[in-house]
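Lecture 7, part B: from sequences to assemblies.

Below are the input chains for today's worked example.
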Amino acid sequence: MELSIFIQLVVLGLVRGSMYALMGVGLSLIFGIMEIVNFAHGELFMIGCYLMYFVAAMLGLPFPLGILASGIGLLIVGVILEKGLISTLRKKAGREWLMDSFVLTIGLMVIFQNLALIIFGGVQRGIPNLVFGRIVLGDVVFIYDHMVILGFALLTVGLLWYFIKYTSMGKAIRATSQHSEAAQTLGIDINQMYAIAFGIGAALAGIAGALLITLFPANPNAGMGPVLKSFVVVILGGLGNIKGATAAGILVGLLEAFALFFLAGGWQNVIVFSIVIAVLIFKPAGLFARAGERA
Amino acid sequence: MTLEVNNVTSGYVKEVSILQDVSVVAKDGALTAIIGPNGAGKSTLLKTIYGYLRPTRGDVLHHGQSIKGLKPDQMLGQGIAHLIQGHSVFPAMTVEENLELGGWIIKHDRTALNGALDEVYQNYPLLKHRRKIMAGALSGGEQRTLEIARLTMTQPRTILIDEPSVGLMPKLVDTVYEEIVKLRDLGYTILIVDQKVHKAVDVADYIYVLRLGQNSHHGPKNEFVDTIEDIIREWI
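Predicted structure of the full complex, as structure tokens:
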């Protein structure tokens, strides 16, 4: 293989991978702390698409404001969903929680999709590009939009990483995920931590939706493809493992880029899902799991 | 009088009271043990004091102030810490992060937090040695030491301890009890519940016996030395 093609595929893979990582990290964070499998994660992505379209296309504001609006908007949506529905149900359900959370998030998925259909119709609302143009270095093409996606995605994952690892709030969130009862006795308001964690997970999905508006136009079903991939990422990375989800997201992106180039379309899914099945059989804790570690 | 439980009735569901009219006092700077057979309501009593359960009758006072109705995460702010049953370290965080989280309620006062950390390291040099290690990689005994040290970060006045010897091998039980006695010697008021009756009675200053959710006997340890075997035999 020529070096230039290799570099080109790596760049494309990183772009895809960075967005899978964003989605997967959000899903993984929510699962790691609250043990909710959030089937509505794709719809949070979809709301992010619409917010981006509203801010950048309809209001005509600079696109970074659209990304910011999607992040903040979904943070608020996430906190409201958690405080209003999820925590209410969790307190009632007790041990039955896992099953109830399935039903709840699947219900949310259906409601959000249909609300979007009623409000916005089935029309695709996209933005052709955020930053027009490309730069060619040697034989490798760098599309500016791709660089924007990659840059903002890495920035977001980096900020999240810093927040979780070094701030006292981030530490309290990790503590809650590792031992909620002990966290509570130390004075940590665990219900607040759940709401913040869900809000952050939602914000990551929203930012992913905003970033990908040029590739996935806003429409009621926009989240269905990305959510499937984010489940893949979470399984490969290990449920609740943020580092693992980041790495797995990039890995899936790279695999897909190479598979798309060398094989017929559609094979990328066969390869990725074969790996998922293999991981589930041989290494069910995830590719990047270390014993006893989470987050 | 540090902690007073006055005529408390409490339980998990409204219709069934596990505790009936129970009164317990944990005196300042003393180690008070609550013993009793299985189902006597010992753990229920701790849960009621710490706000997991709300008493249907009676009151709980800490230094004269009612703490009834406060939530578990508000208790440390009132100066009451709780060592829960089983392992409670955050395994994927370092020893130092675990201790910092012990100071969560004083996190905005960086100087106080660092001071507390220094003091803990002084009292538990082993933890200073291991401060960069993941808590999950510590031995079982070291984890208990960390759990106990973590409770002292905010210098609470009273510490509730629930079944500290559960799941530990006999040798470690002695170590844990040494740590608990050390806490008492540092001036903390301690209220302890344990199935290992002899061990608890051994270190206690004052003893309460619960039976079927009610007060049975209580008194300073020396009054119990002769009768404890008879009391335990009664349970069987």
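Note for the exam: The first strand of chain A starts at residue 134 and ends at 137. Keep this in mind when comparing with the next example.
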